[in-house]
């Protein structure tokens, strides 16, 4: 039996899609056709790759005439084939050709992922970074891949070129006429933080400080929580004055933020500025008993006995703390301070023979002489 031309066309139209789908997954999967029914040609290949069905995508590619492919997709698919065969550097060249024509999120993500894997075995490909003119903005689909790669190269002291790439991305703005958009808040913070760490790593402290100062004083995507994390990088590298200056800027921006006050208190405490530290702690709206006891100790260290007594009086029914503190005062023969706690011991019903004796002794000792 012979088919005429019309019969051949009808046969191809009806059965070709079924042949394609039969190669994608085993016939036992009845949901296959429904899942990919709305995709064809290049769109189907992209969908299969997104679903991690790379082998099926490569099989389907064999059935698409090369002349029907967009140039950027043709290079992308060649990259997939090369990578699948183990020719990673050849694949990277094809990826670059594709991205230089059009920067597509999926292509960029796979390129960055492969590039990260490859440069570990071949550091010479690092020089290619300067050719990444396509990386003017970063789609969200490729953010994680880029941040991971950039951290590894920049902070691992393998390539300083990523610093300039990062700065370029930080200054990127939303472009409605492209598929790319401005960085998400998390990616913006991670890239900015990475560059600050790089500057501190190379002891470019003033440059890092000015960069943060400018960023902190403008309305941007970095939260107070993340700004405090950036300040910690200065503190961790022993640049305490710069850390304090940045915290003071944050205090002006967010005067009611308790974390900023606590960070300032900790910074001044580490520099033995006890009174200043106590003032920041005292500004906190809802201090707990631990904070109040720390304030009292700091006031005591700066010979502000009356303020110390006041803050100790704010401490709730904390018998153990009061007992330990009175024991310390008795051992150091600070009888005036022992006496100042008489009402506190009665208020919380602290019963202790040694403490009771010490309070009575301090009363007798400090009693004014009779005329």
Describe the structure in your own words.
This protein is an all-alpha fold. It has a domain of 54 residues. It has 21 helices and no strands. α3 packs antiparallel against α4, α5 packs antiparallel against α6 and α12 runs antiparallel to α13. The radius of gyration is 34 Å and the shape is elongated.
Give the ordered list of helices and strands: HHHHHHHHHHHHHHHHHHHHH
Write down the overall mean pLDDT: 77
Terminal CA distance reads 139 Å
Derived from helix and strand composition plus strand pairing, the structural class reads mainly alpha
Shape: elongated
Number of helices: 21
Q: Please tell me how large the radius of gyration is.
A: 34 Å
Report the biggest beta sheet as strand number plus sense, adding barrel if it closes. Answer: none
Uncertain segments of ≥5 residues (pLDDT<50)? 8-30, 173-180
Approximate strand percentage: under 5%
Question: Helical percent range?
Answer: 55-70%
- Tell me how many strands there are: 0
